[in-house]
Amino acid sequence: MKNIVIVGGGIMGLSSAFYLQKSGHNVTVIDKNDFLNNCSYGNAGYVCPSHFVPLATPGIVWQGFKWMFNSQSPFYVQPSVKSALIDWGLKFVKSANDSHVAASAIPLRDIALLSQKEYEKWQEIPGFDFAYEHKGLLEIFQTEPVGEHAYHTVEKAKAIGLDTVLLNAEELQQLEPQTKINALGAILFKCDAHLYPQKLMHGLLNLLKQSGVRLIPNEAVIKFEKKGNSINKVITAKNAYDADYVVIATGAWSREIAALADTKIPLMPGRGYSITLENSPYKINHPAVLMEGRVALTPMDGNKIRFGGTMEVVPTSTPPRYKRVEGIVNAVKRYYTAFDIPMPAEKDIWYGYRPCSADGLPYIGKIKKYNNVVVATGHAMIGLSTGAGTGKLVSEIVNGEKPSMDIKPFEVERFD
Questions:
Q1: Helix boundaries (H) for 8-143
Q2: The pLDDT value given to residue 29
Q3: Which of 79, 83, 147, 343 is the most buried (most CB within 10 A)?
Q4: What gap in Å lies between CA 356 and CA 75, rounded to an integer?
Q5: If pLDDT is split at 50, 70 and 90, which confidence band does 253 have?
Q6: In whole angstroms, what is the distance from residue 399 CA to residue 395 CA?
Q7: Which residue in 10, 3, 5 sits closest to 253, CA to CA?
Q8: d(C-alpha 386, C-alpha 360), whole Å
Q9: Under a CB-based contact definition with an 8 Å cutoff, are residues 85 and 198 in contact?
Q10: What is the rounded end-to-end Cα distance, in angstroms, of the chain?
Q11: How far apart are alpha carbons 290 and 334 in whole angstroms?
């Protein structure tokens, strides 16, 4: 039995705590906030093996330049001379090639499938309802070029064993009879599922409390006490916590926390926005990605629909740009023509920061300098999707067990 200190109270930290406690350890989770409003709450709720293409793809860099001066664009990188962004940007550009995309497909598929399997097990835990549904995911397109791309995506998905079909406009409409969709067709990823993030996170917090995991809110980690090749204390402004093992799962802030452990991780925050219709007058059956609009929609928990999108690579201190939300609302209206969604008040707009690695693959594994530190971060837009699987992998690493999948592609210091 070890004393495990997990830094970070999002899905990666809580999932790791779940599996580590289950395997017999004393677990403490420290969160710089109150555990209740991190990036694990406002996302689209996808559990998506379909997302086997990393963020770093050919063409995204040039597209980013074209979108830079559009206040409603779905992708934006704020120019800066700061070394962290320059380092990340150079590595991102180098990774954005066809061979990297091809090499990433299997590990991204495998961690999502592992996670999906674990979420399905979680469903069986008494009292743990997080509105999980395995109904598939639509990727809807309106233009011929994107339709052609969809055809090739289906072929690639089938080649790696994912249950996927291409739908024409009529077949798409049959799946969504409750509202008119303006589209040429869609991909249906039958392999995908979705859930309600708020229920998942609240339920997981309750499970951890009941099982004896210590949850420490509102304490930011400021240093690690080191002894030889290990870290033996995690220190906040208020307390010091003895540690036999440390897990760094601090999302968009992981670069700074890893630096306290003398480890360099190329990672930048990627801000996204979402709005949720709590009692939606509109009904959809399936989650959907609007391909040209780069917007995600999810029916949640019976009577809700969440709309989300954008990727702003900006410092966490940057004020929100609510014009981006106008872009989300307008995109939804172009596809779902009956949806009369007004621009919401600022208080009703959620935003959060995804941890974006420099190549679109997460960082999962031990660091080199200290033998008792594991990192779990960098999942970008698939954090919740891969949360349960990542937690299981972290537990296996700490316990010295053979991981449930090949984690070499996720090596923490792979850019060194």
A1: 11-22, 60-67, 83-95, 98-122
A2: 98
A3: 147
A4: 13
A5: very high
A6: 6
A7: 10
A8: 13
A9: no
A10: 33
A11: 10
